[in-house]
Every structure is written in C-alpha cells, then in structure tokens.
User: What shape does this take?
Amino acid sequence: MNHTDITVQGQTDFAAPRITVIGTGYLGATHAVCMAALGFEVLGVDVDPPKVAELAAGRVPFFEPGLPEKLREVLDAGRIRFTTDFDEAAAFGDVHFVCVGTPQLPGSHGADLRYVDSAFTELARRITRPALLVGKSTVPVGTAARLRELVREVSPVGEELELAWNPEFLREGFAVEDTLHPDRLVFGVASPRAERELQRVFRPLLDAGTPLVVADLPTAELVKVAANSFLATKISYINAMAEVCEVAGADVDVLSVALAYDDRIGGRFLRPGLGFGGGCLPKDIRAFQHRASELGAGQAVAFLGEVDGINLRRRSRTVDLVRELAGGSLEGVRVAALGAAFKPNSDDVRDAPALDVARMLYLEGATVAVYDPEANANAHRVYPDLDYVDSMDAAVAGAEVTVLLTEWDEFRHADPGVLGRLAAARRIVDARHALDVEAYLEAGWEYRALGRPMIGAPTALPQGGGVAIAE
Ligand code: UDX
Assistant: This one.
C-alpha cells in the first residue's frame, strides 16, 4: 500500500493510508474534510460536477456550521482535493469510504441501494492493488456481506480487496464536532486485516480515548438503524404523551421535565412538539421495518409503524391548532410560517415537518408566508407554490396566525411586542415549544402548543408552565 506520513498534533508518528471519500453530501463532505483536518491526504469524489467544483473552490454547497472554515484550512494545507474521476480515486486511495445516499424507494418503505451498489462496484472494478472499502451509508442489514462478495468478484485483485462497515452517527448542525469527537466508533469487520486498517485510519480518535466497538458486518449495520429507531421512538413517546395530555387537559412540557429527572429516562430527545424529520430518522425506521419483514422479523419492529404514525399525526394536529386559532377555517387566512428546515442550524428540508405543515396549510386555502434563515432556497425547490419571504418581519407582517415550525434562535429570541405590532392578529402556535410563553401572553398573544392546555391569558398559565425542557 502507499503511505504518507501523518502529522498528528505536531508529531510524525505513524504511516498513514491515503483516503478517498465517495459521495460529498452532508455526510461525505464532512467526513472528507475532517479526515484531512486529522492530517490525512484525502480525495473527495462525487458524480455531480458542480458540487465538486464548489468544494474545490472552498465553498460548502449546504449549510453546516464550522465546515466552510475547516474546508478552507485543509485546502490551503494541500491535504484535500475533489474529483469526479473514479479512475483517479481507485489509483489514489488505500482506504475508500463510501458515503452516498440511501433514500427511500418511491412507492415502498425499502431503501434505494442503487447509489451504494454503483459506488462500490465502480471503484472495485478499477482497484488494482490491495485496498479497504468502507461503507458509511445507512443500509439494510445484510448489504455489507453481499457487497463484500460482489466487490471481490468484480475486482482485478479479488480477495486483496477487503470491505468493512463503519456507521456514522453525526447530527446535522453538529457534524464537524460529532465527526472529530464521536461518542463511539463502530467497526464492522469480517477479517483481522480490515480491523487493523480501520485502527490505523481512526488512530487519532482512538488515541484521544474514543470508545471502540468491534462487530461483525451485520451487527455494525444494525447499530445504526437501532440507534436511530431508539431516538425516533423516544421522540414519538413524548409526543404520544402529548396526545394524551391534549384530551386529559394535562401539560406535556411539565410532564417531560418531571420524566427527565429520572436518570434512567433522561431529558435528551424527550422534547415534545412537531416531531422528527430529516434525511435519516423517518426513512431509516421505515427501511428497518421493511428489511426486518423481509427477514421474517417484522413483528419485532412493528411498533416502528406506530412511531411513524404518532410522528405524522403531530403535523396534522399542528394544522388543526392553526385552524382553530383562525376561527375554524383557513380559507383566505394569512399565516406566517416560521421555519422550513427539519431542525434549526440546517438548511435540510428532506421530510421536514415544518415544510409539510406549511404545505398542508396552503392546501386548505391559507396564504402562507414562509421564512427560514437558511432553508428558503431548498424549500422553494420542493414546494414552489408557497410564498417565501426573506425576513421574519416580512413573514409576520399582516399575519392573522403565526406558527413557529423550526426553533431557530432568531425566532426564539424575537420580541413578541415588536412582532405583535407587525401581525394583523396576535395569535401564535408554538409547534416546537420553544417560545417564552409568559412573554407572549404579556404581549397580548393568544398562544397554543401541542399537548398543553389552552392558554388565553396570563392568569390561565398552569403552575410549572414555561419551564425549559432539556434537549
Ligand atoms: C439523526 C441522529 O441524531 C444521528 O445520530 C444520525 O447519524 C442521523 O440522524 P439528524 O437527522 O441530524 O441526526 O437530526 P437530530 O438532531 O437527531 O434530530 C432529528 C429530528 O428530531 C429533528 O427533526 C428534530 O427537530 C427532532 N427532535 C429531536 C424532536 O422533535 N425532539 C427532540 O427531543 C429531539
């Protein structure tokens, strides 16, 4: 194998493999840049020429705090390049990370593996010396074993080509931090050689004390979907409690705070509201169910269907609250929709609850002015019919109902008095439970939130209301 010296914290201490990263989306671009930041020589590969050109010019084609600065740093240091050329990638790399997307198949809950299959085979056909291929994409269990056979069949070097799986747990918005300081590393391997090679690649993180779990290929694949399923279940659990609170006249925010004090439960991912979206959680729980059914274990994860159902009901229930505040009909009502991204600090609108709610309001006849600090352009591409404006004030101006859909700091910290003077009526649905209820009530707003009792005036605020919920 080719090796270059790696300098970690100023010390040349071990020979390092050269790394390629195939697929430069949210996951791949971050991984490529962070590997270069750790001192490796990296080649980023993508089939999309404009994306490659952007990255090569030092621009990150999506919103991820901290990533543009890191990209420029490693470009300046000459440790990263980008290409569309698979021949170049095959010649360059000792370890190839595959980070392409596995979207939901149209008309099915299964995952579309065409990009993964193609990345592995295109590389394998061209690799003419011993190398390690590492999958990072989230795939149905069994994929890695199948691909291991396949790449060895098509590769000129056969068994000299090894395959491993290394699931990625990064969160958008914290991608750099999560990649450089992961809470654990998982190596899915089928040979000691693969494990040794992964140890060399992740040595800087392992030396820094990152816990390592070494597993076989199917277990490593399952860790990722099991983790995402657990997180989705936790969110839907508290949102199911919100549904019960709604009919019982109880307050889910207070309930959540009380549950969170139990260390065994914990407060993270127990924030009630509009529920989960994004490019991972929704499609991963569906693909997991689909795959488990194929394997004859569908019953074991049938509850994920409920998790999905609870999550989607939060969206229609948010529309109900807006309609109620509008007086029973949305026809011709002007609504300010604050947020489109699936969560703050992201411009990602894949399966975004916010955008879904804005669309449902529009389909019921409302005039919807959408403002998101970063996701307007992506949202416009998906739903061009909505009216996108370029400031929070412009969205709220003349609104008969305002609905907070993504909890950006800009929205959380807005002054309810100032907003009230812009709006046609002071009525707000806080779909993310992110606002200071008392401040809004004091400024004369009618306030509604899922799973909280109706609050019309400051005196009606229940004891414990407005307590901040831990993430
Ligand atoms: C997720 C996993 O966290 C990450 O480990 C995995 O690698 C990819 O999928 P991400 O999609 O970036 O990461 O988003 P995350 O921060 O997990 O949030 C997912 C969704 O859940 C968001 O829509 C968020 O608004 C929602 N959420 C989160 C809640 O509704 N309540 C909570 O308490 C937490």
